[in-house]
Amino acid sequence: MKPVYVDNNATSRVAPEVLEEMLPYFTERYGNPSSMHSFGGTVAREIKTAREKVASLIGASPSEILFTSCGTESDNTAIRAALVSNPDRKHIITSRVEHPAIKNLFENLAKTGFRVTFVPVDSNGLLDLEYLYENLDDDTAIVSLMWANNETGVIFPVEEIAQTVKERGIVFHTDAVQAVGKVPVDMNKVSADMLSLSGHKLHAPKGVGALYIRKGTKFSPFLIGGHQENGRRAGTENVTSIIGLGKASEMALYNLNEVEIRIKKLRDKLEDSLIKTVPNTMINGDKDKRLPNTTSIGFEFVEGEAILLMMNELDICASSGSACTSGSLEPSHVLRAMGVPFTAAHGSIRFSLSIYNTEKEIDFIIENIPPIIKKLRELSPFWEQTKG
Amino acid sequence: MWEYTDKVKDHFLNPRNVGVIDNPDGVGEVGSLACGDALKLYFKLDENGRIKDAKFQTFGCASAIASSSALTEMIMGRTLEEVSNITNDDIASYLGELPKEKMHCSVMGRDALEKAIAFYRGEKEKKVEGEIVCECFGVTDVEIKRAVTENNLLTVEDVTDFVKAGGGCGKCHEKIQEILDQVHGDIKPVKNKAAKLTNIQKIKLIEETLEREIKPALKKDGGNIELIDVDGNIVLVELRGTCASCSKSQITLKNYVETKLRELVSPDLIVEEVHQ
Predict the structure, then answer these.
(1) Closest residue in A to B28 (Cα–Cα)
(2) Which residue of B has its CA nearest to A302?
(3) Would you tell me which CATH number, out of the four given (3.30.2010.10, 3.40.640.10, 3.30.1330.130, 3.40.190.10), belongs to the domain A16-252?
(4) CA distance A35 to chain B (A)
(5) With contacts defined as CB-CB under 8 Å, which chain A residues touch B59?
(6) What is the value of ipTM here, to two decimals?
(7) Cβ contact (<8 Å) for A329 and B137?
(8) Which of B18, B101, B160 sits opposite A379 (nearest CB)?
């Protein structure tokens, strides 16, 4: 039996159609898109088509799409570009719940002399907009905020934020790695200057991402070298993966409706059933302003790694916000920023679905999680105290 | 994903001796919900002083549960004298091995056992010994020193793996490094300050160190200390507050006050307690 995979915010399977489109570029179509001969030149044309497909997924024009190696590279490129383009500004803003690609980059910049504002979130994971706007000033070089949170799925109002930040003449970047392919992303409506996305979260392979750079945005390349990507990102193109990202983007646009209706329904069923059947259980994050595929559930008085390993015995794949899984000793910075009590933070499990999940799989999870939690609670010295 | 041995997996998936013993002879509880793991260990002795039953309850990850389960198997049928020598390394070895990052789970087992034995012997709950170094996880310098010595730890990361200290905000990494240097003898103190110090300078420096370093630490536990006299290299002090009645006061005096004064004033100082 194949595993029940509900860890799609970590990575997703490459769609069979995507793989099929990629294969010829590993074998007979191995030309370098920069070559003068038509053997390479036709590959360049396929990259152009892929760029168009990525652009149409997010309502951009193809010239605004830069291919990168991953979401993290897109993030780093965007932030560095903004800082280089605004050398007099030494203040940068982000939130307390970002992915490490932004969080650690900003912490790193703080050590090199930048003033960093980390905007807090409330207990539902929603951003403190007032705090954000109060902290915008003439020294602010960039505001970078995620579109959707990888752990809880909570969505930030980027359309409104982008508008306000832009009105103040400040560069706005959004890490939309978890949003693209799960909710509509339209750069005609959202006035962000830059946006990061990643291939392997939307059924393209690992090792490819893209950075959207709005026309007219000051830019400075991160990788220096050849003239590839219009001189904005040196290095021979990862042709096969770019072709894959193109195909995956085309499919993501087509499948968006299914994610928003069928997958959301499955997610809701999973979450509602677990909350109902397992006592002392809570949802982390705002129930409405949330990705349709993600739920983070806190099971009180048990520890996440233990839950995951028992699930692993049944071949159910998910993630945990607990400390022990990552090798760090503290539970996830996202859950802590939200003030999720320790009783639940250590026992929080993230389920993230994709179009490849079936109702049968969800029923299997619903049937098997409650006994796992029950068994672990019977071991826990705190569970008894609660009952008593 | 962690590489757990089959024995760890077995003890995690089929934990032995889970539960509570009513009216236990020994019970020891360590850890907390906030820390992410906790263990409550119980034992009952037979008429010959051997452990006839041991049970545990654990909140934590797979290796915490496995370590607890293994510990109950290890102590069953043995006397307290025998089991009091069990080290965290023994627990890890019993399970084959534990990932380095998970060694603190075995330390938790050892600590719970020590507490349970102390409970049986009617010893008072140990006061927190030493000075808190890691505020995130409430780990003292004494605990860190012990882990460093017993397990021959060499880096701050090692210390975090074994006793969690330094695993939170990271502010204490420098202090942990200092402890490592001290234990491994790499310390480069300002040598023999006393040799150049006049008596008056020495007394002043001792006073300052007590005020600045030692009193604040003792006050955290409701204790205090007064300098009575300095006779050559002998520093006469009186313990006050909770320290005065604490059964561990001699340890506080030698392990903490004396170490601190030797480190900061002069390496040949001897601290003695007087009762006025």
Answers:
(1) A381
(2) B59
(3) 3.40.640.10
(4) 43
(5) 301-303, 379-382
(6) 0.87
(7) yes
(8) B18
- What domains are defined for chain B? 6-120 (3.90.1010.10), 132-183 (1.10.10.1100), 193-273 (3.30.300.130)
Q: Which residues of A touch B160 (CB under 8 A)?
A: 329
Annotated active-site positions of B, please?
35, 105
Tokens 């007087």 sit on residue: B274
**Per-domain boundaries in chain A:** 4-10+255-387, 16-252
**CB–CB contact A346 B101 (8 Å):** no
Cα–Cα distance for residue pair A375/A383, rounded to 1 Å:
11
- CB atoms A306 and B65 under 8 Å: yes
Q: Encode chain B (276 residues) as per-residue pLDDT tens digits.
A: 778 999 999 999 999 999 999 999 999 999 888 778 899 999 999 999 999 999 999 999 999 999 999 999 999 999 999 999 999 999 999 999 999 888 988 999 999 999 999 999 988 766 667 888 988 788 889 889 988 988 889 999 889 888 888 887 788 999 999 999 888 886 554 444 445 677 888 888 888 888 888 887 777 777 788 888 888 888 888 888 766 666 567 777 777 888 888 888 888 888 888 876
Taking the CA of residue B153 and the nearest CA in chain A, the distance in Å comes to: 18
Contacts of A379 in chain B (CB under 8 A): 15, 18, 57-59, 65
CB contact under 8 A, B65 and A381: no
Q: Name the CATH code of domain A4-10+255-387 (choices 3.40.1390.10, 3.90.1150.10, 3.90.1680.10, 2.60.120.10).
A: 3.90.1150.10
Active site residues of A: 324
Q: Quick one: closest CA in A to B32, which residue?
A: A382
